Amino acid sequence: MKVPSPGESITEVEIAEWLVEDGDYVEKDQPIAEVDSDKATLELPAEASGIITLKAEVGDAVAVGAVVCLIDTSAAKPDGGSAAEEEAPKKEVAVAKETKEVKAPEVKKSYATGSASPAAKKILEEKGLSAAAVTGTGRDGRITKDDAVNAVPSMGSPSTGGSRGENRTKLSMLRRKVAERLVSVKNETAMLTTFNEVDMSPIFTLRDEYKETFKEKHGVGLGFMSFFTLAVVRALKLYPSVNSMIDGKEMLSYDFCDISIAVSGPKGLMVPVIRNAENLSFRGVEAEVKRLAIRAREGEITVDEMTGGTFTITNGGVFGSMLSTPIINPPQSAILGMHNIVERPIARDGAIAIAPIMYVALSYDHRIIDGKESVGFLVAVKEALENPKELLMDGNVKKALEL
Known about the structure:
- The chain is of the alpha+beta class.
- The protein has three domains: about 10-100, CATH 2.40.50.100; about 105-155, E3-binding domain (Dihydrolipoamide Transferase, Irregular); about 175-400, Chloramphenicol Acetyltransferase (2-Layer Sandwich).
- The chain contains eleven helices and 18 strands.
- The protein has helices at about 85-100, 120-125, 145-150, 175-190, 200-220, 225-240, 280-295, 305, 370-385, 390, 395-400; strands spanning about 10-20, 25, 30-35, 40-45, 50-55, 60-65, 70, 190-200, 245, 250-255, 260, 265, 270, 275, 310-315, 335-340, 340-350, 350-365.
- Strands 8, 11, 14, 15, 16, 17 and 18 form a seven-stranded mixed sheet that branches.
- A hairpin with a 2-residue loop joins strand 9 (about 245) and strand 10 (about 250-255).
- Helix 6 packs across helix 7 (about 280-295) and helix 6 (about 225-240) crosses helix 9.
- The two termini are about 50 Å apart.
């Protein structure tokens, strides 16, 4: 089996996990491995049934088109288990015999064990470390200069005897790529963030009145994402520079709205795209959000479904975030951050009232979006959310919700 191309521009993947063992019998289309690309983690299905021989280790970077395993299609399916399972008892017997016959080598100890060389002793004194806290790798356990250099002082007061273990794991290709992209955004864009607050009372009122009917009619809930997505679409039409990006020395603008939405998946944050959101109704947006979220949670999302996007919406509020400065999703020029909804005192008609308030944040690339446009865009989003009946539903709630 060769590594298939997960998507355009991807030249290699990393073996994240083998789901089978060498020598197992696999069925056609059975998931045999998870592979990381720089955009997503995907399952690799078996192309045929037979005995599998693995040709790559976990953590290996493998070029697209390279052979990762062999499947012997002439092998008969074993009865009652895989070939690996049948071999297990034999291996256990062999290990048992070896255990009886071979004794573990004794560690040689001498006066040098745990003692530091003159150079190591000086380094340990400078670090404030005791030789007893360092394991020597030199001859007979002597502490070498390298041991002292690599020794890490404990933080704060001396150890009280509790666990001080460490665990070092390799970052996945996806996580490394995300890290690179985030750093590049900070270094290569003039990112600023503007904030505002939204009185969510009108949306709460509409949802309380229509959410049950909406769900019965369409099979999806009437959530906040449809309101925010359609409010963003309206604002992008009013401020087209926010729906643009820099391409070399040119400004590339779009007459469509492909909205990326950040959702939490088993392998971390993923950002699938709602295509042509300007053509979708409340029902259409909610159905697409549900479809993409399910595919992300079940690990079935494809690279193509996460590629592109002209603007991103991220909701830190589901985790309890009150306020944040979201980082732009390159090569886009702006991202809207939603946050938790909290009842707060506000001034309404000259009096103090308690209302469900959400703080919203717009991070934008100041190279292409001016302050007037960024603030105007966020105000337009706020206006639509605080008056959804008129600005998002053309004054006809039932027609907009297709009830």
